[in-house]
Amino acid sequence: MKNPSIAKLAKAAGSPMKQDPTKIGTKESLVKPKKISFDPTPVVPKPMLIFDPLADEQQQKFNNLLKEVEAEKTKVQTQGLAGLLGGKKAYV
To answer: What secondary structure letter does DSSP report for 85?
Structure first.
């Protein structure tokens, strides 16, 4: 650019006058398009893990109940005559 004050003003204003006017229309002035990659698959957010003390307590109670039921079944199957006739082994 011939006049530096005009170039400074154009640059400050964001004008396309950033190139030398003598190079406009040449191969040097052409801007190559940028390739944009587009992924059409939707993004699914991961579920947040929320600590719930009530649900944790209920889970522990349920697991304890299952253990008690299994222990009661084993006790009934191994007591008395059922244990002598080959009931479920208490210590497996």
So the answer is: T
